[in-house]
Amino acid sequence: MADGTHGTAAATNVLHQINDEKAQASAIIGRAIEGSWVGYANAMGLLFGEKKTYETRHIVTMQDLRVTLRQLCETDRLAAFYFITLYTRDVLYSQVLWGTNHQAAVEDYVMMTMNATFAIPRTDMTAGQKTCVGSLYAQIYNRKKQTLHKAVIPDNVTVAVGMNGRSQSPNWKRPKATYFIHTAEQTTDNTTMHMTKKVGYTADRVCATSTMNSHQPHVLIDGYSRSQVL
After folding, report:
1. How far apart are CA 152 and CA 77, in angstroms?
2. Taking the CB of residue 45, how many other CB atoms lie within 10 A of it?
3. How far is residue 184's CA from residue 157's CA, in Å, rounded to a whole number?
4. 197 has which bridge partners?
5. Distance CA 147, CA 145 (A)
6. Cα dist. 222→13, 162, 165, 214, 225 in Å?
7. For the chain, what are the domain ranges?
8. What is the torsional sign of CA 225, 202, 163, 192?
9. Which end of the chain is less congested by CB atoms within 10 angstroms, N or C?
10. What DSSP designation does 189 have?
11. pLDDT of 1-40, one tens digit each?
12. What is the largest CA-CA distance in the chain?
């Protein structure tokens, strides 16, 4: 269609409207995600400490959350990061709201705020069926989680929901209360030492349940399974 025709102008207007609505939805989703993380942190009992004073208060902003997490020891920081960004979304939220997950709740909130409806009602959607708002939620959630990870977790440490280098049975399902901490450290002989620590949540605390490493040979040192890999 030639430039300047009515059809081109109409299509351009539609694309502008789509972009505007996507931006609006993204802003709503972002606020919902960050608000939930701040709420989870406060529910955990984390407090923001004012600089150069002994005063503390509830966490209000994401900056408060980043500062508070960085003030924790590394073990507690990793546990808090997993609890806030993964465990609450995958386990606690659905338990509290009788099966409704955080993504679905945010999707419905976006649609209500924007006075929109799904072409297919949620009750008629098949298992695994995705919506455009749901896909946008996943992108924003992962991006924000990665940003928070970079801000509070050392570069050589990752918090993962699976073990590196270990194959699992196709029917194996990871317990949601379990996560893994992967650490890579340079040694004096210019090799890389990889450590994997499995951690599990109990009812009242977080405890290290076992340690392992997928590389051979390896030895157990200080509660970790360590190996040297070129």
Report:
1. 8
2. 6
3. 7
4. 181, 211
5. 5
6. 63, 22, 22, 17, 8
7. 14-149, 154-230
8. negative
9. C
10. T
11. 455 555 687 788 888 888 899 999 999 999 999 999 999 9
12. 73
